[in-house]
User: Fold N-acetylmuramoyl-L-alanine amidase from Sphingobium fontiphilum.
Amino acid sequence: MAQRPVHAMIETPSPNFDERSLPVSMLVLHYTGMPDAASAINWLANPEARVSAHYVVTEDGQVVRMVDETKRAWHAGRAYWRGIDDVNSASIGIEIVNPGHEWGYRPFPATQMGALIPLIHDIVQRHRITRGNIVGHSDVAPARKQDPGELFPWGQLARLRLALPRPTKNLMDPHWTDGGFMLALERFGYDITDPQAAVIAFQRRFRPEMIDGIIDGECRAILLALLLPKPMGDE
Assistant:
């Protein structure tokens, strides 16, 4: 499928950035979690907020650039993924306008996804980011965050090879103990300091229809498949 060109950018610089100490190897997706786009953009541009992102994608498909990709935007906070604990230094952050769980969480419109997908494609190509390092804020900060949330269409990105697919084929329950599951989850990339939060983050990403924090056979089978060299999924 041919990618459409990235939409014309709206430049709204944020002062909230500093220098990177790591090369870019990750892309972190967030939702804004505020009542509307203007509130979110104003907050991300406010020096008192001390938060920012490289890009904001509005529900009507506008792409706003706030921090140059060469700089370290302050989007992830305390976060960890696959051995990296300065996620901000190693990542590009995209805020996707959505009220979030606090203000009336809702599906991400097609117009918004139509702007987000080419932006992701462009970033991933330029920085050679692997699918396993295209993550949600809840993946890198499971004890604190739940965005972009269970309504985010990860499957749509996976079919374009812009995220890991949810494994669906030939699933086998390895019958790990709960401790064994947590070790496997840590090996996959998650911070398991808060075990239940890590399980919930994993479910929100890879089994969003049932987020109960309980390790069951389906969770074990999905995680095992993700750890195999070639995850079988909805591609």
Notes: Confidence is low (pLDDT under 50) at residues 1-5.
